Amino acid sequence: MKHPYTMPGLTLGILGGGQLGRMMCIEARRMGITTICLDPSPNPPAKGVADLCIQGDLYDPVKIQELAEKAQVLTFEIEHVNTGYLQTLETQGFTIYPSPKSLQVIQDKFVQKTLFAQANLPVPPFARTYKELNLPFPLVQKTRTGGYDGRGVSILADETQVATKGLEGETFFEELVDFDLEIAVLLARSPSGETAVWPVVEMVFDPATQICTKVCAPARIPAEIEQEAIRVSIGAVQVLDGVGVFAVELFVSNSNSNGAPRVLINEVAPRPHNSGHWTIEGSLTSQFAQHLRAVCGLPLGSTDLTMPSVMINLLGEPGAQGKPTIQGYEQALAIPGLSFHWYEKSLVSTQRKMGHVTVTRPNLEDALRLADQAQNLLTITGEPL
Ligand SMILES: Nc1ncnc2c1ncn2[C@@H]1O[C@H](COP(=O)(O)OP(=O)(O)O)[C@@H](O)[C@H]1O
Ligand SMILES: [Mg+2]
């Protein structure tokens, strides 16, 4: 079938101009695709790499319409957007991927989990209230919408903490999974239903903040777990009728009564994801290039691993504020196989994602060791404006 777009000249509109939007725009430039970002900030990370940045709220119908009319395909780099208006645009014939419908399901973690459970995909036991859940504490409470980077997740040790540590707004409760490992399956699905899956990765979190600090590709897991993780992840994206790149976060635990490892879906992100940054250096097709291919209805690229890779997030130090400064830049760049990525955010704050590094080496042990060195060398602090 002849593709409907004339190349070069295809214009992609992106809701959001954060680091994910920025990295999409960098790939788009390489591929001859024009990009326009909508972002509330006057100076978002995508500025300077997008062909055009429109300043505006991601819930403002006027601004979203302006973006849509300038582009042939619309996508987003953040879930917190006006899905209702995107649905209106879709009925008017605009091409939007992932579809506003799949985004709407994902936006509400409770609806998302319900859909997976109905499709017989494995999720931890969950319920609207802890009484309904009927499991012993400790339990996890989550906000249904708006959470990210551990904001909107609270671990409650006992019933008294529901009052003291409980979350505001619409929430739900789930089992505190005693997992051995958190893994992620990154995959792309095209409008025709073709899928391409990258090797499964390990995600390492800071236990205090629940922020992902490190990603290790490939994951050090047995083949059966990898296959099961891929099976349920493809299932989840199919149930969502997802088009684009999706990241499925999973728990691997040994806590089954028969001792068999179990794989549980935690949540799905309908976009390129922190767990896939390593693909820029470590795979034949980066998650950003693949997302462009998928949402534009182009053939998907090879997800082969080129070399084992370890990614470290560069987060603002505790108490950091003001203009960001990087310590250890030169020493880190001396590490063999290290690639440095900076998001050009104008302000730093505690735990804010400011950039990342990926170390790519012929063997994973070396990549892990060198990534740890990089982590020790690099600190992101702030100086007064
Ligand atoms: N049911 C659970 N059991 C154990 N740990 C959990 C559970 N849910 C979340 N967590 C921990 O909190 C982290 C963030 O939770 P998640 O639901 O993925 O929220 P976010 O939207 O902030 O990524 C997870 O990656 C995991 O480390
Ligand atoms: Mg998560």
Describe the structure.
This protein is of the alpha+beta class and 385 residues long. It contains twelve helices and 20 strands. The protein has helices at residues 19-31, 61-70, 83-91, 100-107, 109-118, 130-133, 161-164, 223-239, 279-282, 287-295, 329-333, 364-377, and strands spanning 11-15, 34-39, 52-55, 73-76, 95-96, 126-127, 139-143, 153-156, 171-175, 181-189, 195-197, 201-205, 212-217, 244-253, 262-269, 309-315, 323-327, 338-342, 353-360, 379-383. Strands 10, 11, 12, 13, 14, 15, 16, 18 and 19 form a nine-stranded antiparallel beta sheet that branches. Strand 1 (11-15), helix 1 and strand 2 form a beta-alpha-beta unit. Helix 1 (19-31) packs across helix 10 (287-295) and helix 3 runs antiparallel to helix 4. The longest helix has 17 residues, at 223-239. The termini are far apart. The model has no long low-confidence stretch (mean pLDDT 95). Adenosine-5'-diphosphate binds next to strand 7, strand 9 and strand 15. Magnesium ion binds at residues 249, 267.
Short key terms for the protein model shown above:
globular, 20 strands, single chain, five-stranded parallel beta sheet, 385 residues, 12 helices, binds adenosine-5'-diphosphate, alpha+beta, binds magnesium ion
Q: Concise description?
A:
This protein is an alpha+beta fold and 385 residues long. The protein has 12 helices and 20 strands. Bound molecules: adenosine-5'-diphosphate (ADP) and magnesium ion.
Bound molecules: adenosine-5'-diphosphate, magnesium ion
Strand content: 25-35%
Q: Give me the Rg, rounded.
A: 21 Å
Head-to-tail CA distance between termini: 55 Å
Total E-strand runs:
20
